[in-house]
Amino acid sequence: MKFGPTFDLLAGHKTMTSRVPAERWYGWYRNVNQRSKVVMAEGPDGEKRPIRLIGCGVHKLGWVKEKKFWEEGFSKPSEFEDIWRNLYGRFNPDELVCSLEFEVLLQG
To answer: What is the pTM of this model?
Structure first.
């Protein structure tokens, strides 16, 4: 699973990522959930880190922006929207996204 510029688990507070299309990612999570929920996440620096998926849901993008921006790794909702627009070229608050919640596992 690749993460973008907000994936700095050791220094940040990111514990959730939202993906489109919602149906595909929700199906992927259900498949992973039937096996181990530990996956490797690759940050923008190319380093891989283990994360444990602990939850998944389908939400409207506007709800994620307003209620879950902190978990997405941002300090305010406008930062979340700006990055989303930069990544996808648009921001539709009614678009359905799959939100994956995770916890960082320490490598040892």
So the answer is: 0.81
